[in-house]
Amino acid sequence: MTGPDGRAPRSAAPVLVLNAGSSSLKYQLVVPGSGEVVAKGTVERIGEDGSDVADHTAAVRQMTAELTAQGLELASAGVRAVGHRVVHGGPDFSDPVVITDAVVDQIRDLSPLAPLHNPGAVAGIEAARAQLDVPHVAVFDTAFFAGLPPAAATYAIPRELAERYRIRRYGMHGTSHRYVSRAVPGLVGRPLAELNQIVLHLGNGASASAVRGGQAVDTSMGLTPLQGLVMGTRSGDVDPGLHPYLSREAGLTVDEIDTVLNKQSGLKGLSGVNDFRALQELREAGDAGAELAFGVYVHRLKHYLGAYLAVLGRLDVLTFTAGVGENNAAVRTAVLVGLEGLGISLEPARNEAASREARVISPDGSPVTVAVVPTNEELEIARQTLALLALPAP
Ligand code: ADP
Q1: Quick check: 282 pLDDT over 70?
Q2: Given 5, 141, 239, 364, which residue is catalytic?
Q3: Which of 112, 113, 202, 336 has a 20 to 30 Å separation from 224 between CA atoms?
Q4: CA 294 / ligand 1 centre spacing (Å)
Q5: Cα(173) to centroid of ligand 1, in Å?
Q6: Which fold is adopted by the domain 10-140?
Q7: Which residues lie below 8 Å from residue 11, measured CB to CB, with a gap of 6+?
Q8: Tens of pLDDT along 220-269?
Q9: Is the pLDDT of residue 133 over 50?
Q10: Fold identical between 10-140 and 191-377?
Q11: Whose alpha carbon is nearest atom 4 of ligand 1?
């Protein structure tokens, strides 16, 4: 497809979307207009013992080589920009931003708020900027929640402490919650501005959001991605008194407690496995730990669903997304069973039909529409990257 000047229109030119972690680099070459994925891949084991990929610079080089091997020379593929996923934008970033040296420094300075995520993103950004001479844009996972009402964003701790250490509920997975909540109006045929929505993003990480008229008004993740729902390896909500208790009684250090709650808890802590498919197999084999894990996972979801119903006052659409939310009918059934009195129910045949499409799974005419919408964070990042660069210069 070409524009009036014979060149590909901007939205037809691919954007390279990078998601750099401490030891992996996920990449996707995506066309923002059509959503077509031109190429994708993951460079793994960055910096690990025995790995050929020494650091993020080598990872970007490997990505370029992998793309070249598929006949995609980045220089000639018409790549307009690189969009980087950054988990934590802290108080500084509520919108995507064109990356400069100063922006890289700011993202690095936010690392204490996301020590498991931001340092990898910074390494990926620096390596990519050095090798790919196009505009680079950072898209923050917290941005969709920057406008949370103060009552939802504020922890009831001393205000001076919160201000000095930038403590508030930031929320994560915002790119997914934004993409999904903006896909729902097309699916249900009603305008975004009219809809009260709850989105349940259930992947390895998991989070819930309440969205009124396109604006997020509450979300389950907090200062860090540890708060809220039960996840693959994260506990989600616990009594904050657990931390001093573990320190005093179990003699654990702060870092050990961090590791327990982030990497050894959640489904894994309760059942030994963090992957939901493995959990289902254990349940089918009659494993008591897996059954308990499933029960705790579902009970926590019901808590947030109830809370957000009350926050919103009226619910129009409830949407499941991400690996578990999109694929696991049993979880959807267990979360929603018994909620008919609240106008929420499932049409079993629709719920159980395997599909990769966005779809409604409640009966026609239900007061609350229940939907499944496959998330697409890379496409959302590509679109936000392009939208930012297409803005007229200030
Ligand atoms: P991430 O947070 O890493 O992006 P995903 O959104 O891919 O994670 O979700 C991973 C989870 O989704 C895993 O627990 C996995 O078992 C589950 N999952 C993925 N695909 C399926 C499927 N087809 N059926 C059931 N569960 C699935």
Answers
A1: yes
A2: 141
A3: 336
A4: 15
A5: 15
A6: Nucleotidyltransferase; domain 5 (3.30.420)
A7: 31, 32, 33, 34, 386
A8: 999 999 999 999 999 999 999 999 999 999 999 999 999 999 999 999 99
A9: yes
A10: yes
A11: 203
> What are the extents of the domains in the chain?
10-140, 191-377
Contact 97 CB / ligand 1 (< 6 Å): no
Compute the distance from residue 276 Cα to the ligand 1 centre, in Å: 7
pLDDT digits (tens, 9 = 90+) for 202-226: 999 999 999 999 999 999 999 999 9
Ligand 1 centroid to Cα of residue 279, in Å, is 11
Regarding pTM above 0.85, the answer is: yes
Query: Whose C-alpha lies nearest to ligand 1, atom 16?
Result: 276
Ligand 1 neighbour 280 (Cβ under 6 A): no
141 labelled catalytic? yes
355 lines ligand 1 (CB under 6 A): no
Residue nearest to atom 19 of ligand 1 (CA): 323
Instruction: Name 210's bridge partners.
Output: 198, 218
CATH for the 191-377 domain, from 3.40.50.720, 3.40.630.10, 3.20.20.140, 3.30.420.40: 3.30.420.40
Judge if the beta carbon of residue 324 lies within 6 A of ligand 1: yes
The tokens describing 48, both together, are: 């690990």
**What is the position in ligand 1's atom list of the atom closest to the CA of 278?**
16
Average pLDDT over all residues of the chain: 94
pLDDT tens readout for residues 54-98 = 999 999 999 999 999 988 887 777 888 999 999 999 998 999 999
β partners of residue 25: 20, 43
pLDDT surpassing 90 at residue 173: yes
